Every structure is written in C-alpha cells, then in structure tokens.
Amino acid sequence: MRLTEKSDVYSFGVMLIELMTRKKPFTYMASEGNGLVAHFATLFAEGNLSEILDPQVMSEGGNRIDEIAAIAVACVKLRGEERPTMRQVELRLEAAQSPEEFEANGDIVANSPLACGAGLTSRQYSMEEEYALSARYPR
C-alpha cells in the first residue's frame, strides 16, 4: 500500500469518527458485522448518528455535529479521488466553528487566524500564538 495525501485524509476522517464516538476502530464491531467507520457512515446516511455518538459530544457539539460528521464521512470514502483535500477539510472545519470558541475574557481574539471574519485564508501562525490558543482549553 502506498501512502498518499488521500490516505492521510482517510486517516483524519477515522480520527474524527473516533473523537465523535469515543470508540476505537480496531475493537468496534456493530451487530451487522460492520466496523466503526462503515457503521458511522451508514448511521449518518440514515440520520441516526445519535445511536453511535458519545453523549458528551452530542450535548456539547450542538448544531455543528452534523457538519463535522459530514466532513468525517467525506474523508473516509472508499475511493481516494472522492475524498476532499486536507485544505478543503480545513476550510469546512473552520466554517463549522462557532465564534464563542475564540473568546478570551469575553473578547474575540481579533488577531487570531482562527477568529471568524479575520479575513485570513491560512492558519500559519507562530508557536507563541499556538501556545496561547491551546492554553485556553483544558487538558
């Protein structure tokens, strides 16, 4: 097997599914015999994601769950040419984020490339900015 950009996209999709379900793909088996990725995609197509999503993800994800799930399903398409590029994934994820995620002490971080409406098309920023952004989230 040859690793490509499209295989990286697939792996990213699997990781999104793992995060949304809090299940491991190598230990999960649905009653129909499907693995985690196939079962997630089937439930997404049927509109029954609540059967597999982690309850905390459902309560905290709000209206973004469907978009994140759609991104994950697009990433794990069997044919590599049907998968999005990582740039397309990045843009869709940024569009799905809500502004309150960027609030610091009640103010939106205007200089952050992650802030909505910043007008930036790239997420390139310094290690100091990365550290400052990540420090706001509990570990």
From TrEMBL:
Keywords: ATP-binding, Nucleotide-binding
Keyword Magnesium carried by entry: no
PROSITE patterns: PROTEIN_KINASE_DOM
GO biological process: cell surface receptor signaling pathway
Residue span(s) of domain Protein kinase: 1-103
One Gene Ontology cellular component: plasma membrane
One example GO MF annotation: ATP binding
PANTHER family linked to this entry: PROTEIN KINASE DOMAIN-CONTAINING PROTEIN, WALL-ASSOCIATED RECEPTOR KINASE-LIKE 21
Protein name: Protein kinase domain-containing protein
